[in-house]
Design a protein that fits this description.
CATH architecture of the largest domain: 3-Layer(aba) Sandwich
Helix content: 10-25%
Order of helices and strands: EHEEHEHEHEEEEEEEHEEEEEEEH
Structural class: alpha+beta
CATH topology of the largest domain: Rossmann fold
Number of domains: 2
Shape: elongated
Distance between the termini: 31 Å
Strand order of the largest sheet: 8-7-18-15-10-11
Length: 270
């Protein structure tokens, strides 16, 4: 692992516990000779604010403090190959997180001593024509815009075409197998696998969930739809407009401190 010289910190919005943890981490980093910077909306006295577009040039690590939603948002803000350490404060399960409030000092000491390692995760991206939407670490959901009409979705993958009337479709990464996909009965996949889960939403003809290789998937609908990225950002798509789901050019990079096998199962309480 490279030597950490500067760290950017982002927190869950308006969460006092997350802000307090960020302040504590900034103090420990500064005492260890590491520059601590903040990303919007976080502000800490004595720490310089850093614009998201400057992260790749300015820091060696990003620390995201909050729940999984904060981590997902941070990865969309962090360009390039900058690694991210996720700290769970205020999240329900913190499936993506590596540390919590109980081991902040030890975690920072391990990082400064170079005892961490990187964990890469594939991301996916939706595009339509010349428009590219933000990358997703968990999943891209394509869902009907009109709740009173059930559209027919056409899905092309691996040289085949599937047509089915349904409410929409999820395309999930192995990391996202514990997200929306799991809530509708999907399998939990090891995060390091190189595949995608295609999950139909309320299909009329009982279309099953499918685990497929990481290849381009084309989707279009007979009615207007929304593209929803990681459950946080949505974009309207017109009827008949083709949507392409592809592997994003840069994987997400987590900084990990502890080796685990199926870390998702532990986070889920097993």
């Amino acid at each position: 692992m490279v030597k950490i010289r500067s760290v950017a910190i982002i927190t869950k919005r308006k969460n006092p516990d997350a802000i307090a943890a960020a302040t504590k981490i900034a103090r420990i980093l500064s005492a260890g000779g590491v520059s601590a910077l903040t990303m919007p909306p976080l502000r800490i006295r004595g720490c310089k604010a850093l614009a998201p577009e400057m992260v790749e040039k300015a820091v060696d690590l990003v620390v995201a403090i909050g729940g999984d939603g904060t981590t997902l948002k941070a990865f969309r803000m962090v360009p390039g190959k900058v690694p991210l350490l996720s700290m769970n404060i205020g999240g329900h399960r913190g499936i993506l997180s590596e540390i919590d409030t109980r081991n902040v000092e030890d975690a920072v000491a391990d990082i400064l001593a170079g005892r961490g390692f990187y964990d890469s995760r594939l991301r996916i991206q939706a595009s339509s024509g010349k428009t590219r939407f933000p990358p997703a670490l968990n999943e891209i959901m394509i869902t009907r815009a009109d709740l009173t009409r059930t559209p027919t979705y056409t899905i092309k993958l691996m040289g085949d075409e599937i047509m089915c009337r349904m409410d929409g479709v999820f395309i999930s990464t192995p990391t996202g197998s514990t997200g929306h996909s799991l809530s509708v009965g999907g399998p939990v996949l090891h995060e390091g696998m190189d595949c995608l889960i295609l999950t139909p939403a309320a299909p009329v003809n009982r279309l099953p969930q499918i685990v497929v290789p990481v290849e381009d998937i084309l989707v279009k609908s007979t009615h207007r739809s929304y593209i929803v990225v990681d459950g946080q950002e949505s974009f309207k798509i017109e009827a008949g407009q083709k949507i392409r789901i592809s592997r994003y050019r840069q994987d997400a990079r987590f900084l990990r401190l502890h080796k685990k096998g199926m870390r998702q199962l532990e986070k889920l309480g097993f």
